[in-house]
Amino acid sequence: MLSPRSLLVRGMLVGLAAGVLAFAFAYLVGEGPIDAAIAFEEAHSEAGEPALVSRTIQSTVGLLTATLIYGVALGGIFSMAFAAAYGRIGRLGPRATAALVALAGFVVVALVPFLKYPANPPATGSEDTIGRRTSLYFLMLVIALASLALAVYVGRSQVARFGVWNATIIAAGVFVAVIAVAQVLLPSIEEIPDGFSPILLWNFRLASLGTQVVVWTALGLGLGAVVERSLRREAVLSTQ
Amino acid sequence: MSSISSSATPRPAVQPVAIPWRELQPWLLFGAVLAIALLYFVGTEQGVFHLIGGSGVHEFVHDGRHLLGFPCH
């Protein structure tokens, strides 16, 4: 049987690998738009601030540090979500369970908050509204997590009556409905300055979403493969 | 075991066994607290709140913060 401790350790190691892949993607795809946005910022501000950390450090070691810590943290929490889900989603094995939990994680943690409060490049957010923007972003995240919990609860309660397939559709419908209402009611943030290239904004946001896809894909496929392998080894040992 | 199963690639049809909630709870809590602490430093330290003075942490993880989708300056 799986132990929570070994799952947490493996999740964090898989997260480390996911962080490396995320860095590679973010560096190759995301740094171009960031540099272009900073160039816009410098062209439109009167006095340049003294650079505390050089751009070279920010775009290499700094970015790598951020993606590694992010990967380890998400990997840890993801493995715990996997530990809770494994054996509780029909007869799904470790790989399918990990893939499904990662898909849910991507939608709830990355995609849904992104749809309302998408990632913004440098030069597009006001210093004065950082508190409000941060609160709204995390509020959206909490609403997404709560909606997932509600959807899972509703779905499971309807399985006996409607069957697994239809209960899953009902659960998804509940999730989409709650998110839709929340996104309509929550205030929008529109601080993109005049003259900022829409193509640059699009490219940056695509790079940001792509980084999330890389992270969650690596987590889902990685943890599934690792757990599958150890369970098989265990099963082979026990039959010998 | 029969010769068929021992010679073929081992593919045991394991019925997945869930980890009991009682055993899982402390680890869920630990994992969540650990993750939130780490994410805080990558995502929002020296944004709205400051545990460490200055803006060194913010500037160091600056690009990651933007690309990972956290609200930033």
Automatic annotation (TrEMBL), chain A:
<feature type="transmembrane region" description="Helical">
    <location>
        <begin position="61"/>
        <end position="84"/>
    </location>
</feature>
<feature type="transmembrane region" description="Helical">
    <location>
        <begin position="162"/>
        <end position="186"/>
    </location>
</feature>
<keyword id="KW-0812">Transmembrane</keyword>
<dbReference type="InterPro" id="IPR012666">
    <property type="entry name" value="CbtA_put"/>
</dbReference>
<feature type="transmembrane region" description="Helical">
    <location>
        <begin position="7"/>
        <end position="29"/>
    </location>
</feature>
<keyword id="KW-0472">Membrane</keyword>
<feature type="transmembrane region" description="Helical">
    <location>
        <begin position="96"/>
        <end position="115"/>
    </location>
</feature>
<feature type="transmembrane region" description="Helical">
    <location>
        <begin position="206"/>
        <end position="227"/>
    </location>
</feature>
<dbReference type="Pfam" id="PF09490">
    <property type="entry name" value="CbtA"/>
</dbReference>
<keyword id="KW-1133">Transmembrane helix</keyword>
<protein>
    <submittedName>
        <fullName>Uncharacterized membrane protein, predicted cobalt tansporter CbtA</fullName>
    </submittedName>
</protein>
<feature type="transmembrane region" description="Helical">
    <location>
        <begin position="135"/>
        <end position="155"/>
    </location>
</feature>
Automatic annotation (TrEMBL), chain B:
<feature type="transmembrane region" description="Helical">
    <location>
        <begin position="24"/>
        <end position="42"/>
    </location>
</feature>
<protein>
    <submittedName>
        <fullName>Probable cobalt transporter subunit (CbtB)</fullName>
    </submittedName>
</protein>
<keyword id="KW-0812">Transmembrane</keyword>
<dbReference type="InterPro" id="IPR012667">
    <property type="entry name" value="CbtB_put"/>
</dbReference>
<dbReference type="Pfam" id="PF09489">
    <property type="entry name" value="CbtB"/>
</dbReference>
<keyword id="KW-0472">Membrane</keyword>
<keyword id="KW-1133">Transmembrane helix</keyword>
